[in-house]
Amino acid sequence: MPKLTVDGVGEFEVPADKRLVLALTDEAGVDQLHACGGHARCTTCKVEFLAGEPERMTEAEKTALTTKGLSGVRLSCQLLCDHDMTVKIISRFAGSGRTNAGHRPEDTITPPPVWTTK
Question: Going by C-beta distance under 8 Å and a sequence separation of 6 or more, which residues neighbour residue 29?
Fold first, then answer.
């Protein structure tokens, strides 16, 4: 099982290939935002990698980050926990002013992933 380390929160064993956004909420108990329900549209699920950043990304993630002009962050809804990683949470429900964190994302990456390099 991959190990997910969340800066300031702790270390957690995560089922292999679980979506990072779900591992953050389920295993780590973090109030991670995911306003669009994990469809790579809103970028509220962004995290910063401190170690173990995946080399590949989905085309949907790449498009969303480029459109929003974001760099140095990744979308947790578009990543799988398939190896050990350390992340810093930067988009939490607490203090966001939103009424909820968003609808629970599906278990599989949506839209269906087309993988590319960063």
Answer: 9
